[in-house]
Amino acid sequence: METITLVLSYPIILLLAPPVMLGLITKTKALVAGRKGPPVLQPLYDTIKLLGKGAVYSSTTTWMFKLGPVVSLAAVFCASALAPLAGAPLISFNGDAILFAYLFALGRFVTVMAALDTGSSFEGMGASREVAFSSLAEPALILTFASLAYRSGGLCLAQMFAPHSGPSAAAGTILVLGTLFVVLLAENSRIPVDDPNTHLELTMIHEVMVLDHGGPDLAFILHGAGIKLVLMSALLVRLVLPEMPPAAALGSLLFGLGCVAVAIGLVESSMARVRMVRVPQLLVAAICAATFGLMLTLR
């Protein structure tokens, strides 16, 4: 039964959860604004439509431009095999947390290289912003991993995100949750760090890097970004879930992913995107919170 649940959970989480989460975020923002909004499955319809279209490539681009979307999607698929979603991950070993973080970095690297390959100063501007902000988000992620690794006694994601008890563990978990939520917003280009729905030149970060992509390439990028959102949200949910059977864990995880999507929608509905110069301050605050959580764990 556990094996069947594990086999069924990954297709559900990796194929259906990303568009549903994105749809729930959009739906929440629409309801808060007093509008009906698009259907929850609209991102899935958009992805299917893009897969049926053709791709147009500029004569100035090289193989790197075509390779970027494929490698970025493959990187997050590989990262999903390491993540403890509804029970034990598909692949688990001591140190897989480092590989998990590096796979995210690989996806970002090839996306940035594909943007630079176009030769556009506009996309180069977005790529430089993406790299600058990710250089502050990654230390916060690594510090939270260090705190969880010290508490669990290993660098295995399945052990790090297992339930822990005790007052110090509760305080550290709260700080880890807050830090991971800020990193989630930054890594997935959400408000207050970035607005995925804007196309204003002075405020774009991630969206500007994928302007020249279309058809299946854009579908790969959008779905890969959705999987990344699901994986980081799943880590948040795993921190607060108690031990339970695999079938119950899958249902609780899906419910938790929906709650995270609603929370992101409420955040984006209640505040505006911060000024570009304030984004590093937000990420540095997340680094400080992660450092304080590590200090509590080391006590």
Question: Which tags fit this structure?
Answer:
299 residues; mainly alpha; 0% strand; globular
Write the layout of secondary structure elements.
Layout lengths: L1 H31 L9 H10 L11 H20 L13 H22 L3 H32 L4 H4 L6 H21 L28 H25 L5 H25 L8 H20 L1
Helix pairs in contact: 1-8, 1-9, 2-8, 3-4, 3-8, 4-5, 5-7, 5-10, 7-8, 7-10, 8-9
Termini separation: 41 Å
Average pLDDT confidence is: 88
Overall helicity: over 70%
Number of helices: 10
Order of helices and strands: HHHHHHHHHH
Strand content: under 5%
Structural class: mainly alpha
Residue windows where pLDDT falls under 50 for at least 5 positions? none
Q: From the alpha-carbon coordinates, what is the Rg to the nearest angstrom?
A: 19 Å
Number of domains in the coordinates? 1
The biggest beta sheet is recorded as: none
